[in-house]
User: Fold these one by one.
Assistant:
Number 1:
Amino acid sequence: MKHRCLLAAVLTSIAGMFLTGCGIEEPLERLWFEEPPYTNQLPEAYRKIEVQKTTSAEVLDMVKQYYKELVSQSESTVACWGEKKDTSQFWVTMVAFDEENYNVARKYFLAVDEKAWHLHNENQNLRFDSQVALDEQTLSEAYTSENERRIAIVKKLLEISRDDFTEVKHDSRVLNEGAMLANQMYERILYVLNESPALAARLAEPNGLDYKSLAFDKSRAGLYIDDVNNIVTTKVRIGDVKKLWNIKYWRNEKGEVIY
């Protein structure tokens, strides 16, 4: 009897959405498990690749994790990308190499999901992660404040990511869209920080900076600067925003892990 009541409630809900103009496709999709690879599996290559340590040869062996993915590359950049849900979801793992030793200098992961509602999905419309080895000059320049330093670093990250995407974006519609979205994301964050520079302090907090993106209300960005290894880690979440940082990976100013 309980099962019949539940089924009746679901059918009534679907019918209501259909009659109000939502259509039946979206409500039904919300009851499905997403097809593999699952959203939480997509950053697997990004997690395995280490900035300043992983070599270009190792990257080529590990960057492609799933059969649906394709690889695009230039002399200094490799991008692995895929899409599903009839192209409403796509993801990009991109790696750029140091021109001298060909170890990884920068790594990126971008995932976009227009239908982030499947069961067990992360419900995020956009996820962006990056780790970038920055030059000593940018990190150690005499800034008037730590907030000015953070804003200058975000500007530098925009320039670098734009150049890296330019290396491969011509090879795929997905890469081209990813390049545009990453660019818009950084520009929006910089707009917010230029309006209120004091907000840059939020970037360094465990919960990050909450702001409104152009397309979605809920957005959060975080920036961690590792001055020991000269590596800057960026995290951005748009949509279902949760805590940015896993506490076991949070480090202090000396680069020491704080548990």
Note: The mean pLDDT is 81.
Number 2:
Amino acid sequence: MQIRRIGVDDALLQVRRDVLYPHATLSAVTVEHDADGLHFGVFEGGQLVTVVSLFPGKGEAQFRKLATLPAAQGKGYGKAILEHLADICRKENIQLLWCNARDTAVSFYDRLGYTTRGNYFVKDGINFIRMELSLEKPVAKRFEVIPAIDIIDGKCVRLTQGDYSQQKIYNEHPLEVAKEFEALGVRRLHLVDLDGAKKGAVVNWKVLENIAGKTSLVTDFGGGIKTDKDLEIVYECGAALATIGSVAVKSPELFFSWVERFGADKIFLGADVKDEKIAVGGWLETTGLSVFDFLASNIARGVQNIFCTDIAKDGLLAGPSIDLYKKILGEFPAISFVASGGVSNIGDVAALQEIGCHGVIIGKAIYEGKISTAELKSFL
């Protein structure tokens, strides 16, 4: 899926006509001030499948003629293009996005957070009502420092760049480590089942159950989640969120069924990246899929909790990929985005907070003493 600017041409008008006014001529579906508007399209496989037109004003913007071809409906394209418009408006300090919605589309806009304003009116025999979305900046989310505990054979370890031959054991009792973090004031924990990731099925569920049952930490758990049963085990053992990576790439419909079944707020999508391309299979396989296309397709289906690891940085204490994360946040400012990999000192944490990350996952820098307890507490 690609979203890009388009012109007022026959392709745009034909989608408008075919979806909204199937018996009209192309010239009849032009609107006043089309020449002054900003027009956007969603392309899938090179085909234009969704169109919309945006008309910015002072402090607010109206969009008109949102239309998706019937064969492409139900795939999240309308939601994705409206989020794209909202992002554009926010960058221009526009505080209100609105449309005159058909009565048949009110529930769609309602699910996206739009509210009705005023009363219904009739035009050309169709009932419409104004619907609005406030774009005023929400109260900033609290920046989260999220320590990582990686598990092999029930022990707390760290790998370098995902290499199982480069592992170091830091503590044989992960619960002790988790309790130490809790005592500092940490609220979140990133728990990774490295045995499970290697096997392709959840292995260290007892470690999760122990930590979830004996601490108050909000724990996300990943590694080896490949089936419905794996996911059920993870939630039953106390995980607040399930960390999903490879399945979202290789079996997207299975992944989206989990989002639908358990809710997007229970999913923590991991994007492992090498040279801005998605990597899977314990980082051994780099796909040709752009991280930006990957994120766009998942965000369009409702995913909001996302973390990204630059493989080239992980475990090296060489600093995080600030430029990459800035690009991601620039493209998708509405997501809850957590950075991962490369943090070497407390200055890196401050830099990630400064660019707008909602949190950071830290492992080796804590265990190697590169970030002191006092420094860590300053962000808690």
Note: The mean pLDDT is 91.
Number 3:
Amino acid sequence: MRMLRRTSSTTTAVLLAAGLWGGWGSSAFAMEFDLQVFGHRVVVESNDDGEILKLDDREVHRNIYVHIERVAVIDDVQTIVGTSSDGGNACAPTPFVLTLPAGDEPKLEMFPEDCVGVSSSEEDGKLVFTAEPLPGRDGERWSWDPTNGFKSMGALAFQPDPGKGWDSLVSAPPEHPSGLYDFGAIADQLDALLGDDAADFKEIITGVGSGELRDGGFYVGTSCLPHSCGAVEAIVVADTTEEQVYVAWKPLDAKIIVRPEVKSWPASARTALREWAATWN
């Protein structure tokens, strides 16, 4: 799963462009983010227990990580968009919208879905939150405005790119093994190899993981099911020379499943499989 980063140059650019970047202050806390916006002081303070979002010195929200992403005016209502995370890498941070309506109490609205990686943008006078589709799982778009709050805009279907083949894998190997499904020819081969097990494999391979192109033209990627790392994991090896894929996965409380059978795997792929499977030997 491609995790949202804790900080980004995009966030800084948004705040700088608006003239709202307050910088990092110093206090009794280990870290403080101080933002003057819409006549209010917005602070994210850090201590041993996590981070605290404060508005005009009043606590609004706390979690392990709290991050301010952007500010916007939606339907004449001043808003601050951020994310909140309880730590770890199994789940992406949860977005929130803090509204500062004139003459009324501030209101914090949390995104309605947990453990869904989303990006935020502004479109047609609304905030739009997008969860990109993944292999085996549709994405979705949500809008937000002060009247309706978060509202689904419908699903986004995942589609492999038929124009991306094995040559594209060599020139641009994905950082995450689920990225293999972006390549049309490779996605078709994976689905054919997995058959009825394709859905189970996709659920694991889109979890927490990484991949790389190794010597000899072998792409090796591993991943685990969120909250089940060490118990439910998968490996995929793509031989860019022979244009063949090899997969294995470890279901919960069950033996490793290998496709195709191990004797069909080339030596480099078997080595990667053996190293990966050593956890359960």
Note: The chain has two domains: 9-156, 166-280.
Number 4:
Amino acid sequence: MSTTTPVPSYRLFPAYCFEASPTYNAWVKLFVADVHALRSEPDFATQKIYFFLNHPVRFVCVVGAVVAIDDINTKYTILTIDDGSGATVEVKIVRLTPDTYNPVEFPSNTVVDNVHVVSRLGVFEVTVNHQPLDIGTVIKAKCTISEFRSQKQLELKRVWIVRTTNEEAEAWAETAAWKKQVLSTPWRLTSREHKQITDGINSKKQKAQQEEQLRAERDFKSKERRKARGERMAAREIKLESRRRKEELMMNAGSLI
């Protein structure tokens, strides 16, 4: 029985090409099961870049029902989201600790402006736009991706409450359409597109080099001006000193008469 790993029908492009990807700078609409299916690659593991086929993904958007709310500690609160795709995912809310939170400076006590966590003796509540989240509340969450104990975990950046079943159905339809139209097909670059990318990079490098050269020339001219000014001041000081000495000699000579 063969154990040969099948060769992918796509290639991973170099990182300098990622800006041309339809997913790299987008909130990629994913089902929760697809979040867990995102793949890491050794060359990008430390950059928190994941891949769906060869699409680079940094930001995701998920829609699902809150099935658990956990008060972990003063730094984190965890929402568990279930969208019916066969998996759940933890969404981490980063809280401002009591020593850093100032209600005058910050609109909420978390890093997400419209999310507030109320935690005191006998009371624990998470609100979105001043509306409490309950078990069963459906939310639309935009997040970055991380991992905790070898499992994908999301970190909340933006969130809205989905208020009607129509909104929920529309959101899931958008996710399905995004997967079909974008993610299901490998990302490809034509030779012309690749040349445009490399030409753009070279153009930026040339511009940066020109700016650096101009900056160096300005610095050199500035140093030369300071040097010339210093030399003029030194020459003037020598001239003044010479005059003072002459005047002193004349005064001394006059006092001997």
Note: The chain is about 35% helix and 30% strand.
